[in-house]
Amino acid sequence: MRLPRAPVLALLGALCLGSTASANELVFDHALHVQENGIECEACHGDAKQATSVKMDLRPSMDTCGDCHDVEDEAECATCHVGDDALSYEPSEVEVDFFSHQGHLQRGASCETCHATEGSDVVRAAAMDDCRGCHTTAAQLSDCSQCHARGAEMIPSSHGAGWESWHGVEARSADNGCQSCHTQSDCQQCHSGDNLRPRVHPTGFEFRHALDAQVSSIECESCHSDRAFCSSCHASRGVIPENHSLADWAVFPDGGEHAMEARLDLESCLLCHEDGTKPVCASCHGD
User: Fold this and answer.
1) Which of 85, 144, 214, 266 is deepest in the core (most CB within 10 A)?
2) 22, part of any domain
3) Same domain, 107 and 203
4) What backbone phi and psi angles, to 5 degrees, belong to 286?
5) What would the pLDDT profile of 86-128 be if each residue is shown by its tens digit?
């Protein structure tokens, strides 16, 4: 089981999301309150709107619970509190150090963005994949320090002894989560040249890989998912399609052959001519 490594409400570390609890914890059913009774997150966690640090305790106070429940009847304490020292409990520590709920809410995020289970109102702890839904992974773990004080020193428990020898199995699985921390360039730094076992690219593959790419681009994309990986290599070595060398490929004022090709099959052009934010043609033709 992969432990959550993303911004997590302190209350979610302490409150049970189900109906069981260990000593000195709380029994609390978010589904009952949120899904069945329609209570909004803000009703109990209104302080989140002003929370600029995960160190803030965002759990509801006893008075907040008292708006609906009789909290003065000690006989009812066991309804929520479990353990010999039931009223003494601390929120669980979270691995994130720098996170502002206020900043994210002001930018249009909602509680459900990170804490709702898809298709239901059940509350869950946020995971790193929630962060990556908006924040792109940076190469060489250079963005870890934005949220974590230990930064790149944080290594998942799965990355133990022998991990380098068998990590390929998990990397090939449908839900590997590698992209939460690693970019394609991280892989390429290790899997380049002769440092690739088992060998999938035989000697001379660089000079004849175009045919294989045309036959099965999906297989290539299992490792080379970034188009820039292909285009940067082709550009640096002056490798361009044959028709790009024609005298009338790009001429003023009608654009020449490239304009006609673009109108017929623009998607083919974008395989190389796109920088991830807008088509490269915009540099000449404008936005």
Assistant:
1) 144
2) yes
3) no
4) 85, 175
5) 555 566 677 888 999 999 999 999 888 888 877 666 778 888 8
User: Which has the closest alpha carbon to 34: 15, 50, 52?
Assistant: 15
What average pLDDT does the structure give for the chain? 76
CB-CB contact of 229 with 184 (8 Å): yes
Residue span of the structural domain in which 18 resides: 10-132
Report the domain count for the chain: 3
Structure tokens at 129: 């994949």
Q: What is the DSSP letter of 25?
A: E
Q: Are 76 and 70 in contact (CB under 8 A)?
A: yes
Instruction: Identify whether 137 is part of a domain.
Output: no
The amino acid that residue 113 corresponds to is T
- Do 254 and 217 lie in one domain? The reply is no
Name the maximum alpha-carbon separation found in the chain: 90
Residue 167: in which H helix or E strand, if any? helix 163-171
Distances (CA, A) of 41 to 9, 105, 205: 12, 13, 56
Per-residue model confidence as pLDDT tens digits over 74-94: 777 877 887 665 555 566 677
Percent of the chain with pLDDT over 90: 3
